[in-house]
Specification:
21 strands, 695 residues, 7-stranded parallel beta sheet, single chain, alpha/beta
Length: 695
């Protein structure tokens, strides 16, 4: 149960006077939730100083100020196209107030000649006259104008006045709470208390308060990060206590697999396989994230883990986000497991009727050892006889519930999640801190480095001419991926760009050019890919549908048109589709005429390095945490106050602190532990509290 002292903060935003249902919906979208507690953490981005001026000599051109003006006259225009002007006097200095958008009757009532009125806004000095365009405040008394005014992020239909009313109401309802942070840590950082920091940010009263803006923000950012890390640690502890299937591999199949390989496993692969085996044998439920750059050998590690559970008499599942990737994993696993007497089956949404029934029957009876497929694996009619391991590839492309559904097919089943998108450590901590982490940081021997070149789109005719020569050459086979630009967040517009490029290349290369895109039906897409893989076409024009999972060893040229429109991680994933054969591969990044500084830096980074983890860190710096995995992904936390780039040091400290708390006080029973429960509730990390109670 949430402590009663916090309940006043957990009411709807509509409970604030003057904020009805309609406005509360706009505010909820702005602050990330419809509860008043969210308003506490909607911090200002700046604090505006509005000094009270006592004489005309105090006015600084271009600065903000507040002063008392005596109204002299009005100049009400005949049409609304003309400005409404008010003249007045402040300390013997003439004043001109100008309104371009106005309600005439209101201004005539407000500015009556001979009356005094307080104005506040940005002041201009011109020819000895103070000019104010659209003053921010026109009020009857100085006390109605804040000297230090917080400026908040806004959205359409929401005014600064409304946001200020909301945050001040939340502050009023915030009770005094026992401190949950370590006293020595607060002192070392010079941090104030939780409530004091919120008050100084939302209601600054002095120049000193404004000067300490960043320090107070970082105090609250640390609270937010600690709440995140503590909740993840509590959930991890609960998952471990819940118990998992104990798997005792015989190593018969895995040893035979390793002996049959035409290459040796990398040290990184051997290390990760050992980590997974230890988890399977521990009696605790494995929840491990395997990160590996493109071409680092994740599929082989996954197959080894699946064979380990098959050796012990269990079944395994391998789920991928697309048909193309699922079929590629199926073919790869069949090739590696040839001669091992292991029954591997494929199930996708295309399997219907009698064929589907046969696959499901073999699975339910235990005849099938490993089932590979797409989302089709998590439908209700898919029943395993004894599932022990669920492998989820490109796991961030599945929703949280989809990921859980597969492992819930059997109580105690282990979960191995994989991603080819290198994740910066900061994101791995915040998004996947409830999972153990394994990293494949080596590439198998023989993997070719890809040369990356950057050139303007104006050189496309020259490029096409060069490709024509290369493809016509009899020396060796050359195949090309031609990736079409992202136009906007719309498959239709992306498809139009791809179709246009396909038509232009077809004029030169005829039927040796193929087109593949996300709106094609599965069988049609597979047929195009199969023709390209078989060498029946030389150039594959594509949207980013080929970003993950396509493996054509003879394709060693990648052209990415308008590469400046892609994120770093997306470019890196696309580049990873080439360099899989024995020949040197080339990636050509074509850009438009106008490059922003950020876009130019992205292309430079791609040219400078092929290290996916370094690229991911740079991507975080350039784009922020929300988009490093592409679009904002399911399960990725959205922080209101913490900035993962600026507050990296705080995140690392929070991770250590959360680990220490969970090892010394796993039930949060101490005085600090009880205070930390308030922290978890305030930041709505109820999952951590539930895990604590369930444990």
């Amino acid at each position: 149960m949430r402590p009663g002292v916090l309940n006043p903060l957990f009411c709807s935003l509509a409970c604030v006077d003057g904020i009805g249902e309609h406005l509360s919906k706009r505010l909820a979208a702005l602050v990330g939730g419809d509860l008043l507690v969210r308003a506490l953490f909607h911090l200002p981005v700046d604090i505006r100083h509005r000094p009270v001026l006592t004489s005309g000599a105090d006015v600084v051109h271009g600065a903000y100020g507040t002063f008392l003006m005596r109204v002299v006259s009005l100049a009400a225009p005949q049409t609304r196209r003309q400005p409404f002007k008010v003249t007045g006097i402040f300390d013997d200095t003439p004043v001109e107030v100008v309104f371009f958008h106005y309600h005439k009757a209101y201004l005539q009532q407000r500015f009556r000649p001979g009356t005094d009125i307080v104005l506040s806004g940005r002041l201009e000095l011109s020819g000895g006259i103070i000019r104010v365009l659209h003053p921010d405040y026109c009020v009857s008394g100085i006390e109605f104008v804040p000297v230090f005014e917080p400026l908040y992020p806004l959205t359409a239909g929401v005014s600064l006045k409304t946001v200020r009313k909301m945050t001040l109401e939340a502050l009023k309802r915030l009770p005094e709470l026992p401190e949950w942070q370590d006293t020595a840590f607060l002192k070392a950082k010079g941090f104030a208390g939780f409530k004091e920091s919120l008050e100084k940010l939302h209601h600054p009263c002095s120049t000193a308060d404004a000067a300490e803006f960043e320090r107070h923000r970082r105090r609250l950012a640390y609270d937010e990060l600690l709440a995140n890390q503590l909740a993840l640690r509590l959930m991890r502890g609960h998952r471990r206590q819940s118990g998992g299937i104990t798997v005792h591999p015989t190593e018969q199949l895995t040893t035979a697999l390793e002996k049959s390989l035409p290459f040796s496993l990398t040290k990184a692969q051997k290390r990760v396989i050992a980590e997974i085996r230890a988890d399977l044998n521990s009696g605790q439920r494995m929840s491990r994230l395997l990160q590996g750059d493109v071409g680092s050998g994740k599929t082989l590690v996954a197959l080894t883990a699946l064979l380990a559970v098959v050796e012990a008499g269990y079944q395994g599942a391998f789920m991928a986000p697309t048909d193309i990737l699922a079929r590629q994993h199926f073919e790869t696993c069949l090739r590696y497991a040839k001669g091992l007497n292991v029954k591997i089956a494929l199930l996708t949404g295309r399997d219907k009727g009698e064929r589907r029934a046969r696959i499901l029957k073999a699975l339910a009876t235990g005849e099938t050892d490993i089932l590979i497929g797409t989302h089709a694996l998590i439908t209700d009619d898919v029943d395993f006889k004894n599932l022990a391991l669920a492998v989820i590839d490109e796991q961030h492309k599945f929703g949280v519930n989809q990921r859980l559904s597969l492992s819930m097919k059997q109580a105690g089943a282990h979960v191995l999640s994989m991603t080819a998108t290198p994740i910066p450590r900061t994101l791995a901590l915040t998004a996947y801190g409830d999972m153990d982490l394994s990293v494949l940081d080596e590439k198998p021997a023989g993997r070719q480095a890809v040369e990356t070149r950057v050139m303007p789109c104006t050189r496309i005719p020259e490029l096409i001419s060069k490709l024509k020569q290369l493809i016509a050459s009899q020396n060796r086979r050359r195949q090309v991926y031609w990736i079409c630009p992202l136009v906007e967040e719309s498959e239709k517009s992306d498809l139009m760009a791809a179709e246009k490029r396909f038509a232009s290349l077809q004029k030169v290369f005829g039927d040796r050019v193929a087109l593949v895109h996300g709106q094609m039906k599965g069988p049609e897409k597979d047929a195009v890919m199969a023709r390209f893989a078989a060498g029946e076409t030389d150039i594959l024009v594509a949207t980013t549908v080929i970003e993950v999972g396509v493996d054509v060893k003879t394709a060693d040229i990648m052209v990415i048109e308008h590469a400046e429109r892609f994120g770093l991680s997306g470019l890196h994933q696309l580049r990873g589709r080439i360099g899989r054969g024995h020949e040197k591969a080339v990636c050509l990044l074509l850009h438009g005429a106008r490059l922003s500084q950020t876009a130019r830096r992205r292309l430079e980074i791609m040219r400078e390095t092929a290290d996916g983890f370094l690229i991911a860190e740079e991507d975080l710096k350039l784009r922020g945490s929300g988009d490093v995995l592409g679009a904002r992904q399911s399960g990725l936390p959205v922080f209101q106050m913490a900035d993962l780039e600026k507050d990296r040091d705080l995140l690392l400290t929070a991770a250590k602190d959360a680990g220490l708390i969970c090892s010394q006080d796993p039930e949060l029973a101490s005085d600090r532990g009880q205070a930390l429960k308030n922290l978890l509730y305030l930041f709505q990390k109820d999952a951590g509290i539930r895990a604590l109670k369930a444990g």
